[in-house]
Amino acid sequence: MKNPIKPKLKTEIIPILTLLLMVSGAYYFYSRFPEQVPIHWNFAGEVDRWGSRLMGAWGIPVITAVLYLMFLIIPFFDPHQDRYVQFKKVYHIFKNVFIAFMAFIYFITGFNVLGYNVPIGLWVPLMVGVLFVIIGNYLGKVKRNWFFGIKTPWSLSSEENWNKTHRFGGKAFILGGLILLVTPFTPLLCQLWLFTLSLGIILLGTIGYSFYLFLKENKKDDRNNN
After folding, report:
1. What pTM was estimated for this model as a whole?
2. Domain coordinates of the chain in residue numbers?
């Protein structure tokens, strides 16, 4: 089976070093965490879910390692695996950014558990906002495939729909990310609404636009057939 994106040292060194750093952090945190640790915070930065020391120390590193492996193997199973070569640079950027994002979230929450005054309610929305802006800047360069990108029934069935949906989706991600960047600095009552607005723009906006393009293409085909 052919690998459309061959892993190389220069493409994998950053995620591998990041994962090793997280594993080192897991050993460090596990030796210092209490038996019960917070594993989820609400919009106010208050703990609303607890878990075991093992889950708190190793949960995110394990999830991140699985995510990294998925990035490596997904192109093998895609019927459009030849398309990955056309956006392999973007693919590696997304991979590195996702791994770095998971590591950042892991360490700020881990040090918060140890008693350091890390404002979770500030940093998490900020980093999600940065993540969305980065995704938005590169999303339009993703070529049609079965696993990666904005996969609606209409974008998967049409090259034109895919390309236009991803260009629109890139703008939606950037707008949603910018909203999240200002969210922590607004009153608590507004934060949930802004978060919902951001996700609505990204999810409903891209899906709705893809469906709109589908209807537009169908009307055009009907006119051509008549």
Report:
1. 0.88
2. 1-118, 120-226
